[in-house]
Amino acid sequence: MKILSAKVNNKKKVFEVKTSAKTYFFPYVKTKPTPTAKVPITRVYVDTELGGEGITYELASGKTGTVHVEQVLEYNQDPNYLRDLLLYKLTLEAQRRVADSPLAKREIVRRLGTSATQLYRLLDQTNYEKSVDQLVSLLQVLDCDVDLVVRVKSA
């Protein structure tokens, strides 16, 4: 996701990061080096060296810091980002399980009732067009139980 603009809000002590989807806030205290009243931010900009996916800020001390859009999305608990992260983790686990499975890929395809091309799409960690239920089905074919655990966040 590209960042369109970034502003400093010293009153709230946050960066205002605008993307094509919405504007997010990211607190100074989550950055290193951390801006303070004695060492304020002198400049903030969308960093083209990061492909427009991050911001760089400069402090009065001369130090610089960078914040990637993924940090902003994770801090703000963006649902689309969290879904993609879940898909990524499930895909990596499915890749490991397929590699360790005694089943031939043809047998996995047959049990899924799909094509070999679709299996390779499911195993591609850069493909976010698949669904969680497709990956759960694949893991079931590989004799895995998938449990969803919901717990209170740790600090």
Can you tell me about this structure?
The chain is α+β, with helices and mostly antiparallel strands and 155 residues long. It has two domains: 3-75; 79-141, 434 Repressor (Amino-terminal Domain), CATH 1.10.260. Helices cover 35% and strands 23% of the residues. The strands form two sheets. Strands 1-2-3 form a three-stranded antiparallel beta sheet, with helices on one face. A three-stranded antiparallel beta sheet has the order 4-5-6. Strand 1 (3-9) and strand 2 (14-19) form a beta hairpin. The longest helix has 22 residues, at 79-100. The chain starts with a strand and ends in a 14-residue tail after the last helix. The model has no long low-confidence stretch (mean pLDDT 94).
Short description, anyone?
The chain has 155 residues and is an alpha+beta fold.
Distance between termini? 27 Å
Q: Helical residue percent?
A: 25-40%
Oligomer, anyone?
Answer: single chain
Which spans of ≥5 residues are poorly predicted at pLDDT below 50?
none
Number of DSSP strand runs: 6
Largest sheet, spatial ordering of strands: 1-2-3
Strand content: 15-25%
Total helical segments: 5
> What is the averaged pLDDT score?
94
How would a textbook summarize the main sheet?
3 strands, antiparallel
Q: What is the approximate shape?
A: elongated
Radius of gyration: 21 Å
Number of individual domains: 2
Keywords:
155 residues, alpha+beta, 434 Repressor (Amino-terminal Domain), 2 domains, 3-stranded antiparallel β-sheet, 23% strand, elongated
Task: Please render the helix and strand layout as text.
Blueprint (H helix, E strand, L loop, with lengths): L2 E7 L4 E6 L3 E5 L13 E6 L7 E6 L4 E5 H7 L3 H22 L4 H8 L3 H7 L9 H10 L14
Antiparallel strand pairs: 1-2, 2-3, 4-5, 5-6
